[in-house]
Structures are given as C-alpha cells and as structure tokens.
C-alpha cells in the first residue's frame, strides 16, 4: 500500500482526477436517471473501469470521454451517456 499526505499530491490539470476522489460519487444518465454509486475503480491496463453499485449488483462503467459527459466535483456526481446494453441485467 502506498500512502501520501494530501499536501504532497501534485496539482491536477483541468479534467484530471485522483481515483480515490471518485468513490462515493453518484452516477446518473444524461437525462438525470440515477444509475448508482461509485464504490471502487479497476485499472485493467487497457481501460479504467468504475465499479458502480446499482441496486443489488455491481456495474462496470468505462471511465472515458466516450461515456462520461461530466464530472461535477462539488456535486459529487458523474453524468454518463451509456450505449445500449451497458446497464441492462
């Protein structure tokens, strides 16, 4: 486990995030429909995935510009535009 004091972290550029910051964010569709809550993240090498609790299951949502329309730090909210089938059981 690697740990740093918050003061030791570098300044982030516009549109950058530390993964730990996203835990607890609410995920909603572009129409405002709630999807779930970010519980964790997975770095697969090819892509970063958010582990989102949606009801009684975990949904893996790619964290990239194609799906993520907005990240509102103050509102602790991520707006996504998922392709058909991504959120279905």
Q: What is shown here, in short?
A:
The chain has one helix at 19-22, and strands at residues 26-29, 34-43, 48-54, 57-62, 68-72, 77-80.
Explain the layout of strands and helices.
Elements: H1 19-22, E1 26-29, E2 34-43, E3 48-54, E4 57-62, E5 68-72, E6 77-80
Parallel strand pairs: 1-6
Antiparallel strand pairs: 1-2, 2-3, 3-4, 5-6
Order of helices and strands: HEEEEEE
Radius of gyration: 14 Å
Alpha-beta classification:
mainly beta
Overall pLDDT, averaged? Answer: 87
**Poorly predicted ranges (pLDDT <50, ≥5 residues)?**
none
Number of strands: 6
Largest sheet: 6 strands, mixed
Our estimate of the beta-strand percent is 35-45%
Quote the distance from N terminus to C terminus: 34 Å
What coarse outline follows from CA principal-axis ratios? Answer: globular
Number of helices: 1
- Please give the order of strands in the largest beta sheet: 4-3-2-1-6-5
Q: Give helix % range.
A: under 10%
